[in-house]
Amino acid sequence: MAARPSRAYKLKLSREGIALFIECHCRLCHLVGDLLPYGTTLRVSVTMLEATPLDELASELVSGELTAFGGKEIRFVGTSPTLATLTAQLSDRAAANSAIGSAPQTWRLFLAALSLMRIAEDAFVVRTYETLRECDETLRMRRGELNGTGLVRFNTLVCETNSI
Fold first, then answer.
1. How far is the C-alpha of 164 from the C-alpha of 159, rounded, in Å?
2. How does pLDDT run across 54-103, given as a tens digit for each residue?
3. Which of 4, 70, 110, 164 is the most buried (most CB within 10 A)?
4. CB-side neighbour CA atoms (13 Å) of 56
5. Which candidate, 160, 10, 151, places its Cα nearest to that of 78?
């Protein structure tokens, strides 16, 4: 039996990093007018980071501010297993930039995503959330269709985020 990919993501945060996460989470909840899981905030922020131009991504990843957000406080956030794929793609993309030199650590990607989410325009945050919500709804419908016919369970759905 194949192992199921992890749905829990490890964050190593300082007090400032925890405050950043909470700030982004509260903002997202307020903007969409709903109580959301913490994992939704992480997923929205990383999806927004994926839409960031490479030079801005590189600049954010080498920022000294990210180091201040990282720390010894360990927190686990549950979200879609597709986040691992998106994070790996971002890491590969960043590694291709000569300013970075090598693949960034996952914690730096997560913190860069949250840092950029904090300053993003409200409309961009909401648009990203809505796109992911629509993608999740499509996935739920597909799972229902496939499970209802007795076919092999549909595990992943790649959503186009280019329109974000």
1. 11
2. 888 888 888 888 999 999 999 999 998 889 999 999 998 888 876 777 88
3. 110
4. 10
5. 10
Q: How far apart are CA 17 and CA 126, in angstroms?
A: 22
Which stretches of 33-156 are DSSP H helices? 38-50, 54-61, 64-69, 82-95, 106-119, 122-148
Residue 164 half-sphere exposure, CB side, CA atoms within 13 Å? 29
> In terms of residues, how long is the chain?
164
Q: 149 phi and psi, to 5 degrees?
A: -100, 0
8 A C-beta contact, residue 42 and residue 156: no
Whole-model pTM: value is 0.82
